[in-house]
Amino acid sequence: MSVYECSEHMDNFLRELPKCEHHVHLEGTLEPSLLFNLAKRNNITLPDHFPPTIEDCAVRYNNFADLQDFLDHYYIGMSVLIQENDFYDLAMEYFTKAHADGCLHSEVFFDPQGHVERGISIDTVVEGFNRACKKANELFGTTNKLIMCLLRHLPAESGLKTIQDAHKYYESGILHGLGLDSSEKPFPPHLFTECYQAVKDKFPDVGLTAHAGEEGDHSFVSHSLDLLKVSRIDHGVNSQHSDELLARLAANQTMLSLCPLSNVKLQVVKDVRELPIELFFNKNVPFSINSDDPAYFGGYILDNYRAVHTRFGFTGEQWSKIAMNGINGSWCDEARKQELR
Ligand code: ADE
Ligand code: ZN
Question: Is residue 190 part of a domain?
Fold first, then answer.
C-alpha cells in the first residue's frame, strides 16, 4: 500500500540522516544463516517443528499470528547461542548492518533470562555483547549502549535475581538501561514495580524503559510511566486512543520507540499506513523509528524508514525533526548528542 515513491534522492537522504536506533533486540537480529551455522558449531538439534532451512524460515517468518506466536519461535532461535563468541558474532552482524544503513548510535536490548535459564552465565552473554560494542565503535565510530530487559512472563523474583547478577555491569557502566519485554497483555507493568525501583534506587542514572501499548491498551503505557517511572516507551502505538496520554507524552517529551515493520508482521496493523505516526507527529509526541527483531521481520532500520516514507511522504524538514527527536531521546551524553546533530 505504498502511496509515496522513495526516489533515489530520498533514499540517499534517509540513509544520510543521523539515525539512532533505540529498539532492537540483539536476539532478534539472529539471521537464519547465522542461526544454522551456530546450531552446527554448538551441536544443537532444533525441534522438529522449527523450519529446517533458510527458505522455510522465510515462509514461517511471514506468517506470525501475533506476538506470542513470534516469541515461541524467537526463544527456540536463541537456543543456538552458547559461547561468548556466539554473542559477539551476533552483535557484530547487527552493528555492521546498522552502520551500512547510516545508523550512528544504537541502544540495544538483550534478554539474559532467556540464556541463564538454559545454563548460560550472564557473564558469557554480557562479555560477548560488550566486546562487540567496543569493536563496532573502533571499526565504525558508532556508539552503542546495552539495555538489559526482563522477561515479563517470568516472575518478578527472577527479575530481581537477574538485576542482582547484573549488579557489577551496572556499576561499571557496561549496562546503561533496564527494559521489559515478552508477552505483554497477561503481564501488566505493576508486576515489575519492585524490579524497577531496585535499579532506580541503586543506579539513579540508568535509563528506564518498557514495552507497552504494543498489544496492551493505553493503560499499559500510563502505568509504565506511573509505576515503573520509565522515561521512554517501547512501541506505545495504543497511546493513540487516549488524548490525555498523548498530551502527557508531548508535555514531557517522552519518546516512543516505534517499530513499523514489526507491527505489520505481528498483526498489530495490516499496513504501516494504519499506524498513528502522523498523529504522533502532529501532536508533538516524539518518536524514533526502529527495527525491533529485524532478522524475523524482514527489515533493518533503513527499511523501516523507507516503509514509513512510502506511506506518509514526510518532507525533508519533517524527517530532520524526527531524526533530531531520536538524538534528543537517546541516552548518550550531551557531547555525543552534539556530534550526532
Ligand atoms: N521480544 C522481542 N521482540 C519483542 C516484541 N516486539 N515485543 C515484546 N517482546 C519482544
Ligand atoms: Zn521489542
Answer: yes
Full domain range(s) for residue 286:
8-336
3 domain-assigned: no
Residues 52 and 72: their CA atoms lie apart, in Å, by: 16
The total number of structural domains in the chain stands at 1
Nearest-angstrom CA–CA distance, 306 and 299? 10
Q: What angle do CA 159, 108, 300 make, to 5 degrees?
A: 135
Centroid of ligand 2 to alpha carbon of 235 (angstroms) = 7
Amino acid sitting at position 220 = F
Strand, helix or coil for residue 118: coil
Cell numbers placing 305: 524508514
pLDDT, one tens digit per residue, over 259-276 is: 999 999 999 999 999 999
Q: Which residues pair with 150 in a beta bridge?
A: 180
Q: What are the pocket residues of ligand 1 if the criterion is a CB atom closer than 6 Å to any ligand atom?
A: 25, 28, 67, 74, 181-182, 211, 214, 262, 292-293
Residues having C-beta closer than 5 Å to ion ligand 2: 292
CATH number at residue 92: 3.20.20.140
- What are the pLDDT digits (tens) for 188-229? 999 999 999 999 999 999 999 999 999 999 999 999 999 999
The yes-or-no answer on residue 215 being catalytic is no
Interatomic CA distance for residues 196 and 201, integer angstroms: 9
Q: Calculate Rg over the CA atoms of the chain.
A: 19
Report the greatest alpha carbon distance in the chain: 53
Distance of alpha carbon 235 from its chain centroid, rounded? 9
Q: Does 341 reside within a domain? A: no
SS3 110: strand
* DSSP string of 137-181, one letter each residue: HHHH--EEEEEEEEETTS-HHHHHHHHHHTHHHHHTTSEEEEEEE
pTM: 0.97
